[in-house]
TrEMBL record:
Organism placement in taxonomy: Eukaryota, Viridiplantae, Streptophyta, Embryophyta, Tracheophyta
Residues covered by the (S)-ureidoglycine aminohydrolase cupin domain: 4-60
Highest taxon, organism lineage: Eukaryota
Pfam families: Cupin_3
UniProt xrefs under Gene3D superfamilies: Jelly Rolls
Name assigned to this protein: (S)-ureidoglycine aminohydrolase cupin domain-containing protein
Amino acid sequence: MFYNRGKFNMKYEQEKTFYMARGKAKMHSLSTSEVVEFEAGHLVTQPEGLECRSEVTKAVMMYIKPS
């Protein structure tokens, strides 16, 4: 999956795990105001129910684990 630079809101209806192969992004939790940064080489798990504002600062390519 590819994402170009930009900002957008996300809500995870179920847990999602992905490997970030390229790029850089920040996720701002809408419930806790926590900010987490991800970049190429990171394996990330987003919990079910997470609502966040994603900010892609360098175009991202990721591989998502099938549900």
